[in-house]
Amino acid sequence: MNSRTNWLLGSLYLAAHAVIASAQPCSIEQVTVTAGGPFPAFANFAPVISISGEKIVFQSNRLLVPVPSSSDGDNDEIFLFDRETGTFMQVTNTQGGDGSRRSAFSKDESRLVFDSDRDLTGANPDMNREIFLFDIASRTFTQITDTTSALNTNPSANINGDRIVFASSADLVPGGNTDGNVEIFLYDSSTGFTQITHSTRSAFQGAPTIDSEGNLVTFHSFVDLVGMNPDESREVFTYSPESGLVQITDSIKGGLGSLTPQVSVDGSKIVLVSDRDLVPGMNPDNDVYTFMYDVGTREFVQLVEGRDPLLSADLRYMTYSTSEFVARLYLADLTTVQVPTAFAISTFPSISKHGLLLAFRDRGDPVGLNPDGNSEIYLATCPDLLFQDGFESGDTTLWN
Ligand SMILES: [Ca+2]
Ligand SMILES: [Ca+2]
Ligand SMILES: [Ca+2]
Ligand SMILES: [Ca+2]
Fold first, then answer.
1. Average pLDDT over residues 34-55
2. In what order do the strands lie in the sheet with 307-311?
3. pTM score, two decimals?
């Protein structure tokens, strides 16, 4: 590389950083505007933005839609926000219990999956927590699990909701989970339930996600599922009907371990959090880093210090949070060497296909509409960093 090339690259790099420094911050809009609540930290919670960015689903115990006949404003209900019309649809409308929680879109945005301890179809009179599917166009519910006094939770759906992965303490494949601890299950509308994990201890296995094709599942577990985890550290696994279970992290027990894996929509990448040294020698101090795993090459890249990583569907951006003093949300461009942009104070952001629309919850008052400091839902619209001021980098370097 000659000196002119070096100078040019240096200029581009500096230009990129200058652009970031002067870039417009993401503009933030408060989606819910509510008061207080019995549990203000969870008043409006767990927002997920659809891949197109057109809709946001979340749970709320506030009165967002005037349905006074049966809304107690107390338990959690599922709400759908339409960004174009600026209106809310109240998906569930129930009384009592904890309500409906942890909603997610099918990747085509036609359906929602969530868990609920209410009797939404008449098939859950015992009101334990079951998995439900909601068709947005027809406004109809399908109860996916039908169990007695078991926990069914944390659903994630493929393209149209005909494959759903979730965690459950039920014996859904008769005889497979008679000890009733939490296992990972895959539901297929044509073949029924597959029990992915088989364990006997009451260790937590959770956070399953599934790709759009419905072929790749990832989750974390403390269990020695494939004979590679005798120290029972928290590791990340994948499952596919073709390859079965694969343990993708293999670390010495300690700290947090490896957790909260998120498979990309196309199933090619997994981002996760770990304080282990997954790229040998790169994390000797056991700091909490985000990592990206390539499903094809089975290699990890260590990204940035942070938590809650989530990839945009086009694999261009990753959003994540940090929590030194306050949790900050960041949007990072994975295709360039640009420094991440901090845009809000929160955790667990959700990201659209192109990475420029993000949904998150915040107990602060970023736009002056939340003086009571309960948890509200926000939408951030972020500038496309790559194309600002003509800067266009072919550098595919990731941070390390
Ligand atoms: Ca408020
Ligand atoms: Ca209610
Ligand atoms: Ca039931
Ligand atoms: Ca079991």
1. 92
2. 307-311, 317-323, 327-333, 341-344
3. 0.88
Ligand 1 centre and the CA of 374: distance in Å? 5
Topology of domain 3-388, CATH: Neuraminidase (2.120.10)
Structure confidence by residue, pLDDT tens digits, 182-209: 999 999 999 999 999 999 876 678 889 9
User: Cβ-count burial of 97 within 10 angstroms (0-12 exposed, 13-18 middle, 19+ buried)?
Assistant: middle
Ligand 3: centre distance to CA 102 (Å): 18
Ligand 3 geometric centre to CA of 122 (Å): 10
Closest ligand to 34 CA?
1
Q: What's the gap in Å between 33 CA and the centre of ligand 1?
A: 5
Q: Could you tell me the pLDDT band of residue 11, with boundaries at 50, 70 and 90?
A: very low
**Is the distance from CB of 18 to CB of 391 less than 8 angstroms?**
no
Burial of 380 (0-12, 13-18, 19+ CB in 10 A): buried
- Is residue 17 within 8 Å of 28, Cβ to Cβ? no
Q: Ligand 1 centre from 42 Cα, in Å?
A: 11
Cα(115) to ligand 2 centroid in Å equals 15
Residue type for position 271 = V
Give the Å distances, CA to CA, from 114 to 129, 337, 345, 400.
Answer: 10, 37, 26, 36
Question: Which DSSP category does 7 fall into?
Answer: H
Question: How confident is residue 341, by pLDDT bands cut at 50, 70 and 90?
Answer: low
**How many whole angstroms from 334 Cα to the centroid of ligand 4?**
39
Q: What are the two backbone dihedrals, phi and then psi, of residue 107, each rounded to the nearest 5 degrees?
A: -65, -25
Residue that has been written with the tokens 């207080």 in this structure: 36
Closest ligand (CA of 92): 2
Q: How far is the CA of 105 from the centre of ligand 2 (A)?
A: 21
